[in-house]
UniProtKB/TrEMBL annotation:
It comes from the Eukaryota. This is Short-chain dehydrogenase reductase 5. PANTHER family: (-)-ISOPIPERITENOL_(-)-CARVEOL DEHYDROGENASE, MITOCHONDRIAL-LIKE, SHORT-CHAIN DEHYDROGENASE REDUCTASE. It holds the Pfam family adh_short_C2. It comes from Hibiscus trionum (Flower of an hour). Belongs to the short-chain dehydrogenases/reductases (SDR) family.
Length: 261
Protein backbone atom coordinates (compact mmCIF):
# COMPACT_ATOMS: atom_id res chain seq x y z
CA UNK A 1 0.00 0.00 0.00
CA UNK A 2 1.11 3.55 -0.70
CA UNK A 3 2.45 5.84 2.02
CA UNK A 4 -0.64 7.39 3.71
CA UNK A 5 0.94 10.81 3.33
CA UNK A 6 1.00 10.29 -0.44
CA UNK A 7 -2.61 9.09 -0.70
CA UNK A 8 -4.57 11.48 -2.87
CA UNK A 9 -8.03 9.98 -2.42
CA UNK A 10 -8.05 9.17 1.29
CA UNK A 11 -11.48 7.91 2.37
CA UNK A 12 -13.25 8.92 -0.84
CA UNK A 13 -16.29 7.03 -2.18
CA UNK A 14 -15.96 6.32 -5.90
CA UNK A 15 -17.90 4.68 -8.72
CA UNK A 16 -16.06 3.44 -11.82
CA UNK A 17 -18.26 2.38 -14.73
CA UNK A 18 -16.64 -0.03 -17.16
CA UNK A 19 -14.36 -0.83 -14.25
CA UNK A 20 -13.86 -4.56 -14.78
CA UNK A 21 -11.10 -4.38 -17.39
CA UNK A 22 -8.73 -2.13 -19.31
CA UNK A 23 -8.46 1.49 -18.19
CA UNK A 24 -11.21 0.95 -15.63
CA UNK A 25 -9.40 -1.95 -14.01
CA UNK A 26 -6.13 0.00 -13.83
CA UNK A 27 -8.01 2.89 -12.22
CA UNK A 28 -9.59 0.62 -9.61
CA UNK A 29 -6.12 -0.52 -8.52
CA UNK A 30 -4.75 3.02 -8.47
CA UNK A 31 -7.72 4.41 -6.53
CA UNK A 32 -7.12 1.70 -3.92
CA UNK A 33 -3.41 2.53 -3.82
CA UNK A 34 -4.29 6.16 -3.16
CA UNK A 35 -6.47 5.39 -0.17
CA UNK A 36 -10.00 5.50 -1.55
CA UNK A 37 -12.32 4.31 1.19
CA UNK A 38 -14.90 2.72 -1.09
CA UNK A 39 -14.71 1.70 -4.75
CA UNK A 40 -17.78 0.45 -6.60
CA UNK A 41 -17.00 -1.31 -9.87
CA UNK A 42 -19.94 -1.05 -12.27
CA UNK A 43 -19.86 -3.20 -15.40
CA UNK A 44 -21.64 -5.98 -17.28
CA UNK A 45 -18.61 -8.29 -17.16
CA UNK A 46 -19.73 -10.02 -13.98
CA UNK A 47 -16.99 -12.62 -13.60
CA UNK A 48 -14.19 -10.13 -14.22
CA UNK A 49 -15.78 -7.50 -12.01
CA UNK A 50 -16.29 -9.83 -9.06
CA UNK A 51 -12.77 -11.22 -9.39
CA UNK A 52 -11.28 -7.72 -9.49
CA UNK A 53 -13.26 -6.57 -6.45
CA UNK A 54 -12.10 -9.61 -4.49
CA UNK A 55 -8.47 -8.98 -5.48
CA UNK A 56 -8.37 -5.52 -3.89
CA UNK A 57 -8.30 -7.05 -0.43
CA UNK A 58 -8.69 -5.17 2.84
CA UNK A 59 -7.12 -1.86 1.87
CA UNK A 60 -10.57 -0.46 1.03
CA UNK A 61 -14.17 -1.55 0.59
CA UNK A 62 -14.40 -2.66 -3.03
CA UNK A 63 -17.58 -4.14 -4.47
CA UNK A 64 -18.90 -5.09 -7.88
CA UNK A 65 -22.36 -4.13 -9.16
CA UNK A 66 -23.85 -5.30 -12.45
CA UNK A 67 -24.85 -2.13 -14.29
CA UNK A 68 -25.82 -1.69 -17.93
CA UNK A 69 -25.29 2.03 -18.54
CA UNK A 70 -27.67 1.94 -21.53
CA UNK A 71 -30.47 1.38 -18.99
CA UNK A 72 -31.00 4.57 -17.03
CA UNK A 73 -32.76 2.67 -14.25
CA UNK A 74 -29.58 0.63 -13.70
CA UNK A 75 -27.53 3.81 -13.35
CA UNK A 76 -30.07 5.46 -11.07
CA UNK A 77 -30.22 2.35 -8.87
CA UNK A 78 -26.42 2.19 -8.74
CA UNK A 79 -26.07 5.76 -7.51
CA UNK A 80 -28.93 5.46 -5.01
CA UNK A 81 -27.51 2.25 -3.54
CA UNK A 82 -24.08 3.84 -3.09
CA UNK A 83 -25.62 6.82 -1.29
CA UNK A 84 -27.72 4.54 0.92
CA UNK A 85 -24.80 2.27 1.80
CA UNK A 86 -21.97 4.75 2.17
CA UNK A 87 -23.70 8.07 2.82
CA UNK A 88 -22.07 10.03 0.02
CA UNK A 89 -20.49 9.95 -3.42
CA UNK A 90 -17.25 11.83 -4.07
CA UNK A 91 -15.89 10.57 -7.39
CA UNK A 92 -17.44 9.10 -10.53
CA UNK A 93 -15.36 7.84 -13.44
CA UNK A 94 -17.65 7.46 -16.47
CA UNK A 95 -15.48 4.97 -18.30
CA UNK A 96 -17.92 2.47 -19.83
CA UNK A 97 -17.64 2.47 -23.61
CA UNK A 98 -17.13 0.37 -26.71
CA UNK A 99 -15.24 0.65 -29.97
CA UNK A 100 -16.77 0.75 -33.42
CA UNK A 101 -17.20 -2.75 -34.83
CA UNK A 102 -16.92 -1.67 -38.46
CA UNK A 103 -15.13 0.90 -40.58
CA UNK A 104 -18.28 3.06 -40.66
CA UNK A 105 -17.55 5.44 -43.52
CA UNK A 106 -20.27 7.98 -44.26
CA UNK A 107 -21.14 6.43 -47.65
CA UNK A 108 -21.90 3.09 -46.03
CA UNK A 109 -23.13 4.37 -42.67
CA UNK A 110 -25.09 1.88 -40.57
CA UNK A 111 -27.45 3.95 -38.42
CA UNK A 112 -28.58 0.96 -36.37
CA UNK A 113 -24.99 0.15 -35.38
CA UNK A 114 -24.35 3.81 -34.62
CA UNK A 115 -27.38 3.98 -32.31
CA UNK A 116 -26.14 0.99 -30.30
CA UNK A 117 -22.69 2.54 -29.93
CA UNK A 118 -24.14 5.93 -28.94
CA UNK A 119 -26.39 4.29 -26.34
CA UNK A 120 -23.26 3.20 -24.46
CA UNK A 121 -20.65 5.82 -25.28
CA UNK A 122 -22.91 8.87 -25.02
CA UNK A 123 -26.21 7.89 -23.42
CA UNK A 124 -24.46 5.92 -20.69
CA UNK A 125 -22.19 8.84 -19.85
CA UNK A 126 -25.12 11.28 -19.83
CA UNK A 127 -27.14 9.06 -17.50
CA UNK A 128 -24.19 8.61 -15.15
CA UNK A 129 -23.42 12.33 -14.97
CA UNK A 130 -27.13 13.10 -14.48
CA UNK A 131 -27.70 10.80 -11.52
CA UNK A 132 -24.28 11.31 -9.95
CA UNK A 133 -24.72 15.07 -10.32
CA UNK A 134 -28.16 14.98 -8.71
CA UNK A 135 -26.81 13.01 -5.76
CA UNK A 136 -23.84 15.34 -5.31
CA UNK A 137 -26.02 18.47 -5.50
CA UNK A 138 -28.51 17.06 -2.99
CA UNK A 139 -25.72 16.14 -0.56
CA UNK A 140 -23.81 19.39 -1.21
CA UNK A 141 -20.77 17.32 -2.17
CA UNK A 142 -18.04 19.09 -4.13
CA UNK A 143 -17.36 15.96 -6.16
CA UNK A 144 -15.37 15.14 -9.25
CA UNK A 145 -16.78 13.49 -12.36
CA UNK A 146 -14.36 12.24 -15.02
CA UNK A 147 -15.34 10.91 -18.45
CA UNK A 148 -13.33 8.79 -20.85
CA UNK A 149 -13.21 10.44 -24.26
CA UNK A 150 -10.48 9.80 -26.85
CA UNK A 151 -8.00 11.61 -29.05
CA UNK A 152 -10.37 10.43 -31.81
CA UNK A 153 -12.70 13.24 -30.73
CA UNK A 154 -10.38 15.74 -32.38
CA UNK A 155 -9.65 13.78 -35.55
CA UNK A 156 -11.01 14.01 -39.07
CA UNK A 157 -10.94 10.27 -39.62
CA UNK A 158 -11.39 8.30 -42.84
CA UNK A 159 -13.05 5.48 -40.86
CA UNK A 160 -14.86 4.69 -37.58
CA UNK A 161 -17.10 7.70 -38.12
CA UNK A 162 -19.56 6.63 -35.43
CA UNK A 163 -16.85 6.22 -32.81
CA UNK A 164 -15.35 9.62 -33.59
CA UNK A 165 -18.84 11.15 -33.38
CA UNK A 166 -19.49 9.49 -30.02
CA UNK A 167 -16.26 10.62 -28.39
CA UNK A 168 -16.73 14.16 -29.74
CA UNK A 169 -20.15 14.08 -28.09
CA UNK A 170 -18.61 13.02 -24.77
CA UNK A 171 -16.32 16.06 -24.83
CA UNK A 172 -19.26 18.35 -25.68
CA UNK A 173 -21.36 16.76 -22.93
CA UNK A 174 -18.55 17.26 -20.41
CA UNK A 175 -18.27 20.95 -21.31
CA UNK A 176 -22.00 21.50 -20.87
CA UNK A 177 -22.13 19.53 -17.62
CA UNK A 178 -19.09 21.30 -16.19
CA UNK A 179 -20.69 24.69 -16.84
CA UNK A 180 -24.01 23.65 -15.32
CA UNK A 181 -22.55 21.94 -12.24
CA UNK A 182 -19.82 24.48 -11.48
CA UNK A 183 -22.19 26.57 -9.35
CA UNK A 184 -22.51 23.55 -7.05
CA UNK A 185 -18.75 23.10 -6.73
CA UNK A 186 -18.82 19.90 -8.82
CA UNK A 187 -16.00 19.44 -11.31
CA UNK A 188 -16.45 17.60 -14.63
CA UNK A 189 -13.50 16.76 -16.88
CA UNK A 190 -12.42 14.28 -19.56
CA UNK A 191 -9.39 12.15 -20.17
CA UNK A 192 -8.62 11.45 -23.82
CA UNK A 193 -6.25 8.51 -24.29
CA UNK A 194 -4.30 7.76 -27.41
CA UNK A 195 -4.18 4.17 -28.68
CA UNK A 196 -3.62 1.89 -25.70
CA UNK A 197 -3.63 -1.91 -25.71
CA UNK A 198 -6.80 -2.56 -23.72
CA UNK A 199 -8.67 -5.87 -24.05
CA UNK A 200 -11.27 -4.00 -26.11
CA UNK A 201 -8.73 -2.74 -28.65
CA UNK A 202 -6.97 -6.10 -28.77
CA UNK A 203 -10.27 -7.80 -29.51
CA UNK A 204 -11.27 -5.18 -32.06
CA UNK A 205 -8.01 -5.50 -34.01
CA UNK A 206 -7.55 -9.22 -33.40
CA UNK A 207 -4.03 -8.63 -32.08
CA UNK A 208 -2.15 -9.18 -28.86
CA UNK A 209 -1.14 -6.31 -26.59
CA UNK A 210 2.55 -6.56 -27.49
CA UNK A 211 1.78 -6.41 -31.21
CA UNK A 212 -0.46 -3.37 -30.79
CA UNK A 213 2.17 -1.56 -28.73
CA UNK A 214 4.80 -2.38 -31.35
CA UNK A 215 2.55 -1.11 -34.13
CA UNK A 216 1.99 2.25 -32.47
CA UNK A 217 5.32 2.78 -30.70
CA UNK A 218 6.92 4.87 -33.46
CA UNK A 219 3.89 7.20 -33.57
CA UNK A 220 4.40 8.64 -30.07
CA UNK A 221 6.48 11.80 -30.38
CA UNK A 222 7.45 11.53 -26.71
CA UNK A 223 10.53 9.34 -26.86
CA UNK A 224 12.41 7.29 -24.26
CA UNK A 225 9.23 6.94 -22.20
CA UNK A 226 8.05 3.61 -23.60
CA UNK A 227 4.54 3.26 -25.00
CA UNK A 228 1.15 4.34 -23.72
CA UNK A 229 -0.14 2.04 -20.97
CA UNK A 230 -3.47 1.93 -19.15
CA UNK A 231 -1.70 3.10 -15.97
CA UNK A 232 -0.75 6.36 -17.68
CA UNK A 233 -4.44 7.06 -18.24
CA UNK A 234 -5.35 5.95 -14.72
CA UNK A 235 -2.72 8.35 -13.33
CA UNK A 236 -4.49 11.22 -15.11
CA UNK A 237 -7.85 10.08 -13.70
CA UNK A 238 -6.43 10.07 -10.15
CA UNK A 239 -5.17 13.62 -10.68
CA UNK A 240 -8.58 14.82 -11.87
CA UNK A 241 -10.31 12.98 -9.02
CA UNK A 242 -8.04 14.42 -6.34
CA UNK A 243 -7.75 17.77 -4.58
CA UNK A 244 -4.67 18.48 -6.69
CA UNK A 245 -7.08 19.51 -9.47
CA UNK A 246 -9.58 21.29 -7.22
CA UNK A 247 -9.77 24.36 -9.51
CA UNK A 248 -9.78 22.45 -12.80
CA UNK A 249 -13.07 21.80 -14.58
CA UNK A 250 -14.38 21.70 -18.14
CA UNK A 251 -11.05 20.36 -19.42
CA UNK A 252 -10.13 17.54 -21.76
CA UNK A 253 -6.82 16.10 -20.56
CA UNK A 254 -5.12 14.36 -23.49
CA UNK A 255 -2.88 11.42 -22.55
CA UNK A 256 -1.15 10.33 -25.75
CA UNK A 257 2.56 11.18 -25.71
CA UNK A 258 1.83 13.56 -28.62
CA UNK A 259 0.58 10.77 -30.88
CA UNK A 260 0.97 11.37 -34.62
CA UNK A 261 -0.63 8.80 -36.93
Amino acid sequence: MADPKACKLQGKVAIITGGASGIGEATVHLFADHGAGTIVIADIQDEKGEKLAASIGNCCACTYVHCDVTKEQDVESLVKSVIQLYGRLDIVFCNAGILSKSMQTILEFDLSSCEKLFAINVGGVAATIKHAGQAMVKANTKGSIICTASIAAGLASDRNTDYVMSKSSVVALMRCASTQLAQHGIRVNCVSPGPVATPALCGNLGMGAADIESMFSSMFCLKNNGVLKVKHVADAVVFLASEESQFITGQNLVVDGLFKA
